[in-house]
Amino acid sequence: MSLHEHRYSLTVQWTGNLGDGTSSYRGYSRDHDVLIPGLPVLKGSADPTFHGDRERYNPEQLLLAALAQCHMLSYLHVAVKHGVVVTDYRDEATGLMRLNRDGSGQFEQVSLHPHVTVADAGQAELAASLHHEANQVCFIARSVNFPVEHQPVTVAA
User: Fold this and answer.
1) CA 69 to CA 91: how far, in whole Å?
2) How far is CA 57 from CA 39, 46, 61, in A?
3) I want to staple 113 with a disulfide (CB 3.0 to 4.6 A). Which of 54, 62, 92, 147 is the partner?
């Protein structure tokens, strides 16, 4: 494997057969497990709107989480590169998904709302500007076909 290629694998196992499989739309559970060797099982389901279990993660939440995580990790990397010391980071991410008349749907937009604390007040403006660079290097944001917007707040410790 090349240093420029990274492959990922996991198993998704449907656990929602209630006895009759998919014999009817309401006759099965959307529950499933995401299995990644060496990690805890991630309990998934559909969004409750689509007959899922609200106590399990759904794919839409996980897509939003992946974008927020990737941006944070990219931002921390870019901050180090520019000599900005980040002491705290929190993001209240939101996403908009629209359903189509044919039952399909897609995300139309995600907004990240990172609240970043930096050690040096003199670097707050630089720190705020680094979100654009972080977005440019975020693997997940570069892979989606909808805008990922940033509305950062930067404060000094």
Assistant:
1) 9
2) 16, 8, 7
3) 92
Domain borders along the chain are 11-50, 59-156
137-151: pLDDT as tens digits:
999 999 999 999 999
Q: What is the 3-state secondary structure (H, E, C) of 128-144?
A: HHHHHHHHHHCCCHHHC
Scanning 82-105, the segments in alpha helix (DSSP H) are none
Question: Above 80 in pLDDT, residue 81?
Answer: yes
- The structure's pTM equals 0.91
Within the chain, what is the greatest distance between any pair of CA atoms?
Answer: 64
Q: What is the pLDDT of residue 1?
A: 58
Tokens matching residue 44:
């998934």
Mention the CATH class of domain 59-156.
Answer: alpha beta
Question: For residue 136, which phi and psi values (nearest 5 degrees)?
Answer: -70, -25
Tally of CB atoms within 10 A around 131: 21
User: Tokens representing 110?
Assistant: 């995600």
